[in-house]
């Protein structure tokens, strides 16, 4: 941050995630009272005309075509990494070495090795007051944050069961083209790393337990797809030639967690009708809870300690002033949307930087997720045998 | 608009509605491609230090304390009225006379007479290319806009039944103080004008039918309340002295619509557990639909023309690119929130101004709502007798 | 009852209601421990071969063609009236005069006058230990009985709002024929008496308040229909000739209740997609509740007295042993169906007869419902003016 | 069957399952037109006074204390086995050898070996026209039967994903006693065989695919429990001494099915708040469907082939005359309950016997389920390695 109380951001990447982050950076100080004011200083992309257009539309002051330029700039305090996973490691390590705070989209990296080196870089930089964070934004959906509070407060008792799915259906059509998210060299993995990573992080966060071992299978239902004529985020139009899908369409695993819970996990892009179907259920010795991202303003909570005849799942509308993040927004019942999770993420990041604390999830937290994903792939590759994380 | 392609906005009022409008003005050009770019030129409020703070927080370039100054400013193209209803008429008429485009929060005015004079002013200004619009923002929730499309496309057939409630519970506690929304001279009416107005407008909009007559009752359950020590939007803390509640707590009416439908309407601030419970159901000769604001990314649609065994209410997640407004935002299933209805409203307003068209709802549309509210009050005052609008 | 501990039933009518009652009589002693055992002694219908077939199928020992024969039989203790409303009065009064206990399907009668004379007959017979009851079976859905307990126990506080609909769609098709339920001389009224009666009784029962006045409208959307070639309960096939529909298709009214609540009621057979959509919501000063007959094993309860952040509508699965009637059936979560409300009704009737108590709802309770329906018709006929019950 | 057109049933066991079967046998001919009439000839239990009381309450003509007496009786056509799993094999084989038709509760047996010998006995008897069936009653919930029709008709396309849970919570309390269902020698297994068996059968039935391999884990959360002072079905009161729980509390597995689908399965008695939470979701290339036993009159169906903007999960109320089994019951929207699945099962069994066809599920079908359960146990015992069925 400079003396003016600003936190000057340089963002790398401006597609889906870049747009979401931009909306968050633009909004965060308009809604929350914070000690630093975010400034959308520069955005970076490889194509000059495209990145200029993006800067204009999304509200960034200048556009650059080389992320190294951002890392080297004096007027940048934060590097916000919104690129595909294959470039996270190089950018993050360079940025940290340059003394820039880093916020890096999930998954932290495409391989455990990259992730490990990023953790080391973050640890080293931390000594110099440089902050780093991985962008598991769903932690900051108010209902998820509130669920974490309920569990931490003992309201569910000992957690016995975790049941987590993240279901989408955007590639059910065999003619959907081979976009970068279906290529292992760019994306690292398929449904597993893209959306499976979210439910691993989210369940570890809300339970306070780590996945310790898994037994897994992965599947690629459609093995050849048309090459894309042009790719843009999640959608694209296909051409005549085809290529091989090198990532999983779906990943399923059973797991054990460090606190004694057993779990099922499933991530799929072939769940027809499920658009963004992240659903997590916890069953504990005292209570249970269910979160569904398609109804993100709600949390279902079962309190098993009250009078039996009155027990049931309570649909809590997580829009009250005493719910996390909510007081800054609208009156009760006036729901938030997907993008607000990013605004909350930036709120906490800005506050952490300003107050000299380490934001969460740290690179180390994200590395743990990466190790779980790695165990899933190893188990799947070895006939679903039990695999320790 | 000036030659630079900007649409320079002056907003009057900066409380709940002002914050929502600010978020919309800041966001609209970041998400939608529009021929004009909104500029947050000035905000107006009576208390100088408060309005300065609001300008800084909400992102307005300057703060003024007299709305007449905004109306007289050369660098203002649009007056955006976010004050309580008792000042709408005077501000709007002055702004229109000064050639400013006007967007005015609902209800249009506190009385039919005021509303009528505003319509006349809008009609007069229109001849000179000046645009006006009333802020019934819920029309622009994608699910509501889409419902309008379904009805207009004949998918529900002849509408037989309209069933609309808008239920809140923020004054159930008798100790909740006598804020301005509970005072007839400021607010015009209570639940009726504040939230009942929304369901009248919304149902008239989606059905394309006008309410022609009503039979109504209104009720004030708690007739004396503590005077507020300080008031701020929907919440306040009460003091020791009390005053008389001069507005309705709840309004209930049955109605007939111009196309032959019969209807029930209910607006209440005493519906314990309902935070922002706007729910509308339409039953037609071919199909039915249900919208619930607490789940605003969804629309339930019943298609009565398909195979009988497969019929049922379909929960449409209104987050697909071919749903109204949605393509500009996030991928399917990544829901929007309350505030987005305002961004959509500003999108349509900006486009109307830029292309020289009249935005909807017009002041005349809003006047029709006002006349329905007036008929409700007259019916209630005369023992619930049938009252033509 | 005779010395053998049997309660010998003679049932008049064997269509939809007769089948439901038969299932209840057959089952009641198999599930509940009761001091008397119901015996399905005789069933009555006008067509000899049809009534014989019904007796065989439904399990009645003998079939008769004249209800007077049943009333005169020594081996009949109870007359169970399942005919259309136009014959209730004559049969019930004769049966009571003959010292038979009477259970009469709702609505009690087609007119207030008939209902009044039935009440007088019941009062007279009561002196001689003869019991009478009207068949508002939904009171005995466990979730409804439990809701009554919650209200009576003060869990909702003072009831402010009642919101009740009973929506069906079986005559939306204009070609659906003119069955007896669409003829005023047989059915008394249309949606109002058939299903509107249920929500009036149910809401008066659960709130403990009586409807004291209404403002109403009724509508007949389709005024001419094909004459039925043959009629059977709710379904029939139409012929070429047409006749005039003499009952309402829909009835809507607002009301006040004796305890200060205000209410909306709506009954319709034109609510496309709603098959048996009885839905009741109560809002009180301390809590709220919702019951929906299409999900009859559930009750939604909002407890407004707990910690704010945890409040919400709790979906209670009313299948626990400490819920009314449930302990006699299956383990938790193993839901009941529509027919069980009749079994519970017979359980309470048998117990009342055996223990010499008056079962509820009494004819007087049902007469009060009849007076509400009459006020609705009078209000509707007089331009929706307020009409005291 | 004897010449009188009766099918004379002898039932072994009269607890929870016996009560459910009794209700079904009593009701089946009252609702369905069938070529044979079931007669509740005899019930068998070990304790003479208890079985006499049960016969009287449940409506059986005589009570016996040795099942061999039933098997030897000339006036018994069907042996209905409702005992715990450890006695299924012996009774069924003896009954089949005696030429009695057999309906046997699930799971077919406690071990694969027993189940295999039962299949052999059934095959042998079949040559002589003797029928056998296993009681996976949930196949006959109308919504499940209808789901099978949708899948068989190709409405879901190729099934990609199966997601099945059966969740209960009746032993969450560590003080709940060690009833027979928690003892391996009586029950064979815990949640796995009791409720996991249901979801294996149900998903194999509706998909038409067989589970071919699994990777599994099982868990017993509470390893010591009080010995029961007296046991009765699902509930019991505990004493001071304790014993070891020898069955699983929960079983989780991932699986592959013969048609290429991948699946997750979970059965647990520790899912706080879930009373009878059987939930199955199928995702296919053309559509998806969800069934939830706690709302058994509903089926959610997603048709992925229609106009994109109108797609969504349709909540079908499976209460229409053209849904399986429904025409015999009540009008649309008048829902059925848990017990009706047994009545439908008996309907199909009676019809199969009368028409000389083999009812489903056959012992061989149930044996396949048994083999899946066995694979689950073997996988769990061997560190969750992949295990072929």
TrEMBL record, chains A, B, C, D:
<dbReference type="Pfam" id="PF01408">
    <property type="entry name" value="GFO_IDH_MocA"/>
</dbReference>
<keyword id="KW-0560">Oxidoreductase</keyword>
<dbReference type="Pfam" id="PF22725">
    <property type="entry name" value="GFO_IDH_MocA_C3"/>
</dbReference>
<dbReference type="InterPro" id="IPR000683">
    <property type="entry name" value="Gfo/Idh/MocA-like_OxRdtase_N"/>
</dbReference>
<dbReference type="GO" id="GO:0016491">
    <property type="term" value="F:oxidoreductase activity"/>
</dbReference>
<dbReference type="InterPro" id="IPR055170">
    <property type="entry name" value="GFO_IDH_MocA-like_dom"/>
</dbReference>
<protein>
    <submittedName>
        <fullName>Oxidoreductase</fullName>
    </submittedName>
</protein>
<dbReference type="InterPro" id="IPR036291">
    <property type="entry name" value="NAD(P)-bd_dom_sf"/>
</dbReference>
<feature type="domain" description="Gfo/Idh/MocA-like oxidoreductase N-terminal">
    <location>
        <begin position="7"/>
        <end position="125"/>
    </location>
</feature>
<dbReference type="InterPro" id="IPR050463">
    <property type="entry name" value="Gfo/Idh/MocA_oxidrdct_glycsds"/>
</dbReference>
<dbReference type="GO" id="GO:0000166">
    <property type="term" value="F:nucleotide binding"/>
</dbReference>
<feature type="domain" description="GFO/IDH/MocA-like oxidoreductase">
    <location>
        <begin position="146"/>
        <end position="289"/>
    </location>
</feature>
């Amino acid at each position: 941050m400079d003396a003016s109380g600003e936190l000057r951001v340089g963002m790398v990447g401006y597609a889906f995630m870049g747009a979401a982050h931009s909306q968050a950076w633009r909004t965060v100080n308009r809604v929350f009272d914070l000690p630093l004011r975010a400034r959308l200083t520069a955005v970076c992309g490889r194509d000059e005309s495209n990145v200029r257009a993006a800067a204009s539309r999304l509200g960034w002051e200048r556009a650059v075509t080389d992320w190294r330029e951002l890392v080297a700039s004096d007027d940048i305090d934060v590097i916000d990494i919104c690129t595909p996973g294959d470039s996270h490691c190089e950018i993050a390590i360079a940025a940290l070495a340059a003394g820039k705070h880093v916020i890096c989209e999930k998954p932290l990296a495409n391989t455990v090795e990259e992730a490990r080196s990023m953790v080391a870089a973050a640890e080293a930089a931390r000594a110099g007051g440089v902050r780093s964070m991985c962008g598991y934004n769903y932690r900051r959906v108010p209902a998820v944050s509130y669920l974490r509070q309920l569990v931490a407060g003992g309201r569910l008792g000992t957690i016995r069961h975790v049941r987590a799915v993240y279901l989408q259906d955007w590639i059910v059509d065999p003619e959907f083209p081979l976009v970068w998210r279906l290529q292992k060299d760019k994306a690292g993995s398929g449904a597993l790393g893209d959306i499976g990573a979210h439910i691993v992080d989210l369940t570890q966060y809300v339970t306070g337990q780590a996945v310790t071992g898994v037994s897994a299978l992965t599947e690629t239902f459609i093995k050849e797809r048309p090459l894309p004529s042009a790719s843009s985020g999640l959608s694209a139009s296909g051409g005549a030639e085809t290529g091989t899908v090198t990532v999983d369409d779906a990943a399923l695993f059973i797991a054990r967690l460090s606190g004694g819970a057993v779990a099922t996990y499933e991530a799929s892009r072939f769940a027809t009708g499920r658009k963004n179907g992240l659903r997590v259920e916890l069953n504990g010795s005292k209570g249970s809870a269910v979160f569904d991202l398609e109804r993100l303003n709600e949390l279902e909570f079962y309190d098993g300690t009250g009078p039996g005849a009155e027990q049931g799942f309570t649909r809590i509308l997580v829009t009250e002033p005493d719910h996390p993040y909510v007081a800054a927004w609208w009156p009760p019942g006036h729901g938030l949307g997907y993008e607000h999770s990013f605004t909350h993420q930036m709120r906490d990041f800005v506050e952490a930087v300003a107050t000299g604390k380490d934001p969460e999830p740290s690179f180390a937290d994200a590395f743990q997720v990466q190790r779980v994903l790695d165990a899933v792939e190893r188990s799947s590759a070895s006939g679903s045998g039990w695999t320790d994380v």
